[in-house]
TrEMBL record:
Residues 1-124 form the VIT domain. Pfam families: VIT, VWA_3. The lineage of its organism: Eukaryota, Metazoa, Chordata, Craniata, Vertebrata. This is VMA5A protein. InterPro entries: VIT (IPR013694), VWF_A (IPR002035).
Length: 768
């Protein structure tokens, strides 16, 4: 609950969370009180994202009840015109310091010492953690304050204010949990340990968000939650049939990808970054933030066989090529030459138009598409539209974002990265843009699962209709949620089990995994899986358009979504203030009751600077801390301490200034697309040697000049590896090329290179 004054205090909280595999159903009651002797204007705000569906909200103050209700879009627009106080939401949208998507409801005036009880219910798809756990969070703002005795909280006081229970369910079995708070022992409620319960004793320490990690038994690339139909709904409708939620978490081993899986890499550069483009990159006073260097290093790090393109955007956008081209020596040389032709543009910023153009282009032969977006200017008026496009195509690509200029675009960039399961690194003047970009490229080159398909085996008489299909690819360490409707009538009611098989490829290897699941699950009147499936179906219908046959499906689904509180592009929220005696009447006639009036209540996009996602608070704090230090003109902070503090946030100090950047740039620029170096005067000079000396120190006449030059450059790069850790990507390309050459005396070449460069690099370098 946010208000103009902090005196509206949260007194007590009751929360019941049910987690089944990777879906959470949350029912909460929050009790606030105005502790002052004057009335306060109040508004309730709750952060939402594409994985969160708020379906029930009501507030009770005395004998008055405010309830959020969904209406079809056109009807809601008419109601909003008749709703007084809509300016409160517009003011919140433009003046609040928060940024992002929220559910907001204006509650009006709260009299002195008066209590307001909030009922909030939502469903949420839970993210997968690197160790396989499902993660559930609860914001720190929605915990009541607990007095502390010394360093300890009073559990007796907490028991009066906090009732937070968690029910865990999984057909795989619940193994254990981890919570950053004091909690009761995990109690299993089924002999096979497929369900368990736990309760919080105290809120998290130091006003932190609750972070719950749930671990299930074994490692499973596939899990399924089947939810029974609503007995009151007609068979054949979404509510009248069972729905299954399948979570895909494929195991992806480390393999060398085949050429067809190397992907498509698109580099999007804000032309305002090139305003100092007249200064040669090697002579720039700040090579760390030079976009030319960044593009050069990214191009050199790409593998042969992939596809790429470079876009520059400002008031308009331009592409190097009409469509992505294969990465070869010729295309790489051409792209490197064209980098200098990018002209600065300080006008508009048409990122939205560029993204729409890219998304409208089909994927190349099923290759994974990954975007590297470097942006400096703020896009305040189009942020919501940008996120809508990113959300629509989130299963088809991944974004790595690099905002600059004091984090003006950090919020949008992080949102894009989170939505596509990419990464966001905020670049400041003391940070190394090329280094951070190449580190992300290393991650982008990791193996992935492709050719994903699901095969269903159901009893005769039952069929499956896909609501949300499997994606074309899943990146390492990520998951995907699939929803399907099971309709029909089983010929043999005694057969109550089905199976689904996941098939996918990693490189040239094929994998398949079969999961058997029960078709007779315990009933759940709250229908969390149906609600999420309905949300995905409605978005799908909105994006893809509807045929005449699908019009009936859309009409039926929208009608059901109104009763279940599932928001979609076809609906909008309006709250109704009424007396408790009228609360039972849930149709349009209630609007004409003299005791009822309309209240501003909507899903909003806020334009402030502080992200509403509680999980990104630490990241935001680190970025802003560094930004403020720069603005105040302080010297660079302790880079080692800052690196340790923000390791999880990917904020690192500049490393390449520790070595001669111009020589490093020259060595990188001379590397061929296949990873080798030619023996030239330019290379010798960049290595600090003469060509005659290099040729004279060649181990033997049998050694090819290109192989000898490649070993020399590789050893030189490795010599600075402790200063330029990201050079490993370029080293790996060189090693792969050397390993493909026949009869290269690597040990002799390495010994000669160590002697010539005055260093000691061990033979293990060739095993990168």
């Amino acid at each position: 609950l946010f208000s103009s004054y902090p005196e509206v205090e949260l007194e007590a909280v009751t929360v019941n969370v049910t987690i089944q595999d990777f879906i959470a159903d949350v029912v909460s009651e929050l009790f606030f009180r105005n502790t002052q002797q004057v009335s306060k204007e109040t508004m309730f705000i709750f952060p939402v994202d594409s994985h969160t569906l708020v379906h029930t909200f009501c507030a009770t103050m005395g004998d008055t009840r405010i309830e959020a209700m969904l209406w079809e879009k056109e009807e809601a627009q008419q109601l909003c015109k008749a709703t007084s106080g809509m300016e409160n939401l517009r003011y919140l949208q433009d003046q609040c310091d928060l940024w992002g998507h929220v559910f907001a409801c204006f509650l009006g005036t709260l009299p002195p010492n008066r209590e307001v009880a909030i009922s909030l219910c939502y469903v949420q798809e839970l993210p997968l953690q690197p160790d396989g756990a499902a993660q559930f969070c609860w914001p720190s703002e929605l915990f009541p304050p607990i007095n502390h005795i010394g360093l300890f909280s009073s559990e007796e006081e907490a028991s009066k204010k906090l009732h937070f229970s968690i029910c865990l369910k999984s057909a795989h079995g619940v193994s254990h949990i981890a919570i950053n708070s004091s909690y009761t022992p995990l109690q299993y409620t089924a002999p096979d340990q497929t369900s368990a319960e736990v309760s919080l004793k105290l809120p998290p320490w130091l006003h932190c968000d609750l972070n719950l990690l749930v671990y299930y038994r074994g490692s499973h690339p596939l899990s399924a939650v089947v939810e029974r139909s609503d007995p009151k709904a007609p068979p054949g409708s979404l509510l009248g049939d069972s729905v299954v939620m399948v979570t895909l978490t494929p195991s992806i081993p480390e393999v060398v990808p085949s050429p067809g899986q190397l992907g498509e890499f698109l580099f999007l550069m804000d032309r305002s970054l090139f305003r100092d483009a007249q200064v040669p990159p090697e002579d720039s006073a700040h090579p760390s933030i030079c976009p030319q260097n960044t593009l050069l290093f990214l191009l050199k790090g790409l593998p042969l066989g992939c596809y790429f393109n470079i876009y520059s955007f400002g008031a308009t956008f331009k592409a190097f090529y009409p469509q992505s081209v294969e990465y070869t020596q010729e295309s790489m040389d051409n792209a490197v030459e064209r980098i200098s032709s990018i002209c600065p543009d300080l006008g508009g910023c048409d990122l939205l138009g560029l993204l729409r153009s890219i998304y409208s282009t089909p994927l190349l032969h099923g290759r994974p598409r990954q975007l590297f977006i470097f942006i400096q200017r703020k896009i305040s008026s189009e942020e919501e539209a940008v996120m809508a496009e990113v959300y629509r195509y989130r299963d088809h690509h991944r974004c790595f974002c690099f905002p600059t200029n004091g984090c003006d675009n950090f919020n949008l960039s992080q949102a894009m990265a989170l939505e596509t399961k990419g990464e966001c690194v905020c670049i400041h003047s003391r940070m190394d843009m090329p280094s951070e970009a190449v580190k992300c490229l290393q991650r982008a080159l990791q193996p992935l699962a492709s050719g994903i398909s699901l095969l269903w085996d159901l009893p005769p008489g039952l069929e499956v209709s896909m609501i949300r299909k499997a994606p074309e690819m899943i990146f390492q360490g990520h998951q995907s949620f699939i929803y399907a409707q099971i309709h029909g009538q089983a010929q043999d009611p005694a057969v109550a089990e089905g199976a689904v098989t996941l098939q996918y490829h990693v490189g040239s290897q094929s994998f398949n995994y079969t999961l058997r699941f029960s078709l007779s699950p315990s009933s759940d009147d709250r229908l969390p899986v149906h609600r999420m499936a309905m949300m995905h179906l409605l978005w799908k219908l909105a994006w893809e358009g509807t045929s005449r046959a699908e019009k009936d499906i859309q009409h039926s689904t929208v009608k059901s979504s109104l009763s279940l509180g599932v928001p979609s592009p076809f609906t909008s929220s309006v709250a109704v203030r009424m007396k408790q005696m009228d609360a039972w009447q849930h149709d349009s006639t209630m609007l004409f009751s003299p005791s009822c009036n309309l209240v501003p209540c909507q899903l909003l996009w806020l334009h402030g600077f502080r992200p509403v996602w509680f999980k990104s608070t630490k990241f935001w704090m680190v970025q802003k801390c560094q930004f403020f230090l720069e603005k105040l003109g302080h010297k660079a902070p302790d880079t080692e301490a800052l690196t340790q503090f923000s390791a999880s946030c990917r904020v690192s100090p500049l490393s390449t200034r520790l070595c001669d950047f111009s020589r490093l740039r020259m060595v990188v620029a001379l590397q061929k697309a296949n990873g080798s170096w030619a023996l030239t005067t330019a290379l010798a000079s960049a290595l600090g040697l003469s060509k005659a000396n290099v040729e004279g120190q060649k181990p033997s006449e049998d050694v090819q000049p290109t192989a000898w030059a490649t070993v020399l450059a590789l050893v030189w790069l490795h010599k600075y590896k402790w200063k330029v850790s990201w050079s490993e990507l370029l080293e790996a390309k060189a090693c792969r090329w050397l390993q493909d050459q026949a009869e290269v005396q690597l040990d002799e070449c390495l010994e000669a290179a160590n002697s010539l460069l005055g260093c000691f690099v061990e033979p293990t370098i060739f095993r990168i």
